[in-house]
Amino acid sequence: MSIAAPVRLDAFVVFQCDQGYYMRGESRAQCLGDNRWNYAVPTCNIKRCPNRNVRNASKAPNKNNWVYQETVTYTCREGYRMGGRARSTCQSNNHPTNPSGTWSSNPPSCTRIRCPNRNVDSATKAPNKHVWYYGESVTYACREGYRMVGVATSTCQSNDQVRGTWSSDQPSCIRKTCNSLVIADGTVSPRRETYNY
User: Fold this and answer.
1) Residue 3 falls within a domain, yes or no?
2) Do residues 125 and 106 both lie within one domain?
3) In the listed set 85, 112, 139, which residue is the last one of a domain according to the structure?
4) What is the 3-state secondary structure (H, E, C) of the chain?
5) For 32, which of 36, 41, 142, 180 could close a Cys bridge (C-beta 3.0–4.6 Å)?
6) Domain carrying residue 55
7) Does the predicted TM-score (pTM) go above 0.85?
8) How far apart are CA 37 and CA 122, in angstroms?
9) Cis bond leading into 61, ω under 30°?
10) Does 184 fall in a domain?
């Protein structure tokens, strides 16, 4: 910033920084004559936005100093879902002497992906808990007298990094049975087609 044209004695000049820059020094100066001014020419410095890190997320570009019009993009770690906006741009706050810029949006959040709790009738599960997060596995075991239909172990996963889904359908436990017996020249009591365990 400089004064290019001649200015008459006692005249004032006003300085103004471009959008995205803040002023350091006085915003106006008075001509004292003999090429002397009552204040030095101020400087215009680019505004900076505070560095923001998001837990369980990476950012690109990966740096700590941000200036006007730069954009940061956050990506949640595998197994976490994003809430809010992934991209934010460093903007001017329109205050001519404030060195700090402002971000265009609040920082996002990354929360662990959860799968719905599943209980199987006539079975136990290990570990025995009710909240399941991405990457955790549950194993079901049928009670005595029951047999399992389906896959015993299932893992919490996600295909879209938003919703948690189990790696297999929920199994079921059905009662073990025995077929009816036939005895020559005799009877079986009680007479049934099948017998439960």
Assistant:
1) no
2) no
3) 112
4) CCCCCCCCCCCEEECCCCCCEEEECCCEEEEEECCEECCCCCEEEECEECCCCCCCEEEECCCCCEECCCEEEEEECCCEEEECCCEEEEECCCCCCCCECEECCCCCEEEECEECCCCCCCEEEECCCCCEECCCEEEEEECCCEEEECCCEEEEECCCCCCCEECCCCCEEEECEEECCCCCCCCCCCCCCEEEC
5) 36
6) 48-112
7) no
8) 91
9) yes
10) no
Does the pLDDT at position 162 exceed 60?
yes
- 56 shares its domain with 88: yes
Quick count: other Cβ atoms within 10 Å of Cβ 191? 8
Tokens for 24? 């350091």
Q: Quick one: tokens of 21?
A: 């820059």
Token pair belonging to 36? 């002397």
Is residue 192 included in any domain, yes or no?
no
Structure tokens at 146: 């029951």
Question: How many structural domains does the chain have?
Answer: 3
